[in-house]
Structures are given as C-alpha cells and as structure tokens.
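Section 5.1 Outputs to date
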Amino acid sequence: MKLDRTSMLYGTLLLTGTGIAGQFLGFVYRILLSRLIGAEIMGLYQLIMPVYSVLLSLTAVGLTAAVSNLSAGYYARGQRGAAAQVLRRCLLCFLGLFGVLATVTALLYDPISVYLLGDARTQMGLLLLLPCILLTGVENLHKHFFYGTGAIRPPAAVELCEQVIRAAAVLGLLVLFLPQNPERTVAIIVVGMIVCELFSSITLMLLARRRLAGEKLGEPGASRRMNRQILAIALPVGFTSLLGNLMGSANAVLIPQRLVAAGAEVSRAMEEFGVLCGMTMPMLCLPTAFIGALGLVLMPKLAQGAALGNTPLIRRRIDRSMLATSVLMFPAMALLVVVGPTLGQLLFREEGVGRYLLPLSVGVLLSCWQAVLGCALNGLGRQKAAARSSILSGGLQLGCTYLLLGLPGVGIGGYWVGVVASSALGALLNWFQVRRVTGLKLRLFDWGVAPGLAALLTGLTGNLLFRVLLDSGVGEWTAVGACTLFGVVLYLAALQAQGVRLNRLFRLR
C-alpha cells in the first residue's frame, strides 16, 4: 500500500521508525553511561535534568506549540510568508526570554544547587546547561516548524543523527577524561550534550532557511493578530509545561530526600533514585516512541480539522489514535513485565531494575492515554483544559511522593502509587474534556477490554514460556527474543479472535 506523505499514518510511522531507532540508540547510550559512571552519579545527573526541563518550559515549549499549530494553518491556506513570520517572531521571543532566565540562573546557581537541588555537586553541570538550553530551544522551534508544515523527514533525520552524536560525544569524553570527581563527571556529560545540540540547531536552521527561500513575510497589518494568536497558544501550553516540570523537578528532588527521612543513608537513597529514574523508567518508556510521534502529528492535524469545522474527521482521528495507542502499548507493557527483570540485569547489571515493573507499567500505559488526549485538546484549541488536567495530576504525584516515601517500611515502593494514581486522574480528566468538545463516544472494548485481555493472555503465557526456556538452559538473550516474538504473534491472534479491526489504523489520515 502506497502511503500519502501528508497523511497522519505516514508522518506517524516515519517519526515512529526514527523514534524507535533513536530510543534504541539512546537506551544503549544510557546503559553504557550507567556502567561508566555508576548509580550515584547517574542520580546526580538526574537531579539537574529537571532544571533543563523547567527552563525550556519557561522559554520554548509554548512557542514550539504556537509554531506548529499556526504554521499548519498558514501553509494549508497557502500563506507561507506568514508561516515564516511566525517562526521569526517566536525565535525572537525565545531569545529574549532565555537571556533573562540565563542571567538569573548564572547569578543564583549556588543557592539553586544547594537549596533547591539539595546537592552542591550539581553546580558545574547546572551552569553548562545554559548553552545547551539555548541550542535546544532554537532546534525545537525549527523542528516544530517542519512538523506544522508537513515536512516530517528533515527533523526525523536530524533527530536520529543527534542521538548518534550525543552518544559518541558523551561517552567519548568520559572515556578520555575519567576518572573525575562526581561534579566534573556530570559536567562532562553536559558538554557532550552541547556538542550534539550544536549540530542539530545549525542543521535545522539551514534547512528551514532553504525551505523558506524567496518567501516574503506576512502582511504588516496582520502583525497584531499574529501576536495574539501566538500568545493564545504559547501562554497556556508553556504555563502547563512549566508547572508540570516544576512538579516533576520537585518530585525528583523529594525522592532521595524523603528516602533519607525514612531512614535510608544518603548514598543509598541516591542509588535507588538513579536505578528508578535512570534505569527502570527509561526501560519501560522505550516503547513510547510511537506515542511521541503520534502526538507531534496529531496536534496540527486536529488543528486543521477544527479550522475546517469537520467534527466527524476530528472524532475519527482521535478514535484511531486511541486505538493505535492501546493496541501497541498493552503488549509492550505485558512483555516488559515478563522479561524486564532479566533484561534489566543484562543491560544495567543492577538487580533493582526489575522491581515494581507491573504497577509502573500500568502507570506508563495510563500516561500514554493522558498524553494522546492532551495532544487532542491542544490541537482543538482547549489548552486551558489540558493545563488543568496536567496540574491536578502532577499535584497528586507530588503529594504521593511526599507522603508515602517518607513512611518507614514503604520506601521507594510508594513512588509507583503516585505514578498510577496521577496518570489515571490525568487520563480521566482529559477524556471528559475531549468527549465534551467532540461528542466522541467511549470505545471501551476496542480501547481497553480487547487489548487488555489479549495482553493478559500474552503476559501469562509468555511468562510460562520464558521460565521454561531459562530452566532448559537456553541463553538469557535467546529466551528474551523467543518470548517477545511468541508474545507478539499470540497477542495479534487474540485481538483477531475478539474481532478488533486493525485495518482501521491503515486509514489514519
């Protein structure tokens, strides 16, 4: 079947393919990184990454959504000059915001490290994050311009190259300069990140300039209207991302602190934090490359449908997006629960990687539903509704971390309670809003019951097969591969037996 390059399916499959390749490269990179630096330094590295996310939320995230949505509308109407003007205005706004926040961060890096992050060894890495954030913001604005205008291939190719360059730069620098103290080791990692972001930002800038060559800027009289349109999208999306990242940052900082409050030693608490957030969750999130790709394509497509007033098209796109999410994520989580403990030991050489995989997999699945429905709300112009859901679910996660992890005897196990509860709340709130706006009916059987039962059968049968293979003396990697292949075939057969029509996914336009 020949795919239309402007369809949702083509864009999603292309981004998924490059995303899976990128996820795989990033996963291998994380494995090698964890082996080079150990769990404690991995925990320190995880401490500074929320700052990276918060600063990007304050400067770039809302503007990237504005570039994507508005560029989609202007290109659909043939107004390419207006799309170029949107990109230019958002770049100027980003640079202004970054200049202010970078100055504040550079002046206050010491109290931020000591009092907010809780570890002075993050100071050097925190300062080096600033040029990395500048380059990432420029890269993301150009990347979302391509997404909005339907040119998926340039950012997809750059993203894949970026993963290779990041792994080579970071691991190469560590091999050259280790051993170092923990603070300098974290700084070396960030320098490697700067190298790859420099490549991505320059490449996408040149490609965007080539795509817009000869285009005139939009009409001067439309400037005020364009500014209002940018602000109407950027402010709620950026505010939501900011609050979500602030809560995520607070959550990351609280985890080791609450473990210490419950009686754990500081080094042990940091190790558990590094294993959970730097190893276990990345392993579970490996299959979510499809969800990120789907969201990037879905949002501008729904914006086009809303501009045309085509509600049946909107409902059809959301329905098929939810079906695709469920059909792919249910078996992925089931198989990871089965092979995850063994896979974690093989990859990370840490026994604790396999703990709490079952409840955390439920949380990841619910978070995927929440993410797809949140993208739908943003594409439909309901950014405030998506913001409320995100804030409430993030607040619940933060509360669970503070209350449960500090209880003696509960420890890190309290984290999964917050993950499941907050993701469930966010998914429900987003669904209620999507149903109210579009009138879409809940397809409980197709989205939940059928893939859930098929995944349960896959997990139970796969677990039995996996144990038999291991007991028979088959190598662990061979057992993982055989179990995965068997599970996929069984899952598809179980879906077919329940009458789920997967051919609907091939009409995702």
